[in-house]
Structure formats: C-alpha cells, structure tokens
Amino acid sequence: MATKNEQQLNEIQKKNLEAAMRLAQLSIENSQRIMELQVGTAKSLFEEGVANAKALSSVKDPAEAMNLRTAYAQSTTEKMLSCAREIAEITAKTQAEVGKMVSEQLTGGGADMFESIQKMFKGMPVGDHNALGTIQGAMDTARAAYEQMTKASTEAFQAFTKMGGKK
C-alpha cells in the first residue's frame, strides 16, 4: 500500500502528465493550422503564377507586360506578408496559452510540491525550518523569473508583429 507521501507525489506526477498532454495537443493543433495556412498560400501563389504566365504570354505591349509583372509581384508580396502575419498571430496566441498553462503549473504544482516537502520535513525527527524557507524562496524566484521572461518575450513579439504589419 502506498504511503501518503507516495500518493501525493503520484498526484503531482499525474497533474504534470496531464499538463504535458495538453501542451502537446496545443502544439499539434497549432502546427496543423500553420501548415494548412502555408499550403493554402502556396496553392494560391501557384495558381496566381500560372494565371500570370498565361496573361503574359498573350501580351504584345512591353508596358502592359511590365504592369502585369508589377501587379503580380505586389500581389505575391501581400499574400506572403498576410501569411506571415497570420502565422505570427497563431504563434502569439499559442505563446499566451502556453504561458498561462506553465504559470498555472508553476503556481499549482509549486504549491503542491511545497506542501509535500513541508509534510515530509514535519515527519522527520529533525525538522529544518530554514531549509523549508529556502525551498519556498527558490520556487518563488523561479516563478518570478519565468513571469519576467514571459513578459519580455511577449513584448518583443508584439514589437516584431507591429513592425511586420507596417507597409
């Protein structure tokens, strides 16, 4: 029969596994969206390229041919930028969801782990309360560092997205 500490650790492991599975599912779904977007864009660009080549083959006037080429280049650029913006949006949403999941995991999992460690120390003949404070401090520092990294990367990504949106 499992002890109470083993049951608590098993519960923590179960929560971590569920979080990992949610993260993997999110990753798969977003990868699929990005691939569909890329395939759709490539198909559209190919079809437009074929149509442009047909149109160019029947043009006799050099000025009209230049206008067709310019319009095709502009359309291609707009479609590629639109695709890049959509990928950036998907990535930003994914980053926010992953950040939320990790934050929840750090907060909930950290509290569970700290509680388990606290109970383990209480069960020992010589309890070192300073060690418990050190562990809590380390967990708080890790959580704060993660939150700061998430904030910085979100701000950097938003700046990149704004720069990419300018024409």
From TrEMBL:
Pfam families: Phasin_2. Residues 7-105 form the Phasin domain. InterPro entries: Phasin, Phasin_subfam-1. It comes from the Bacteria. This is Phasin domain-containing protein. It comes from Zoogloea ramigera.
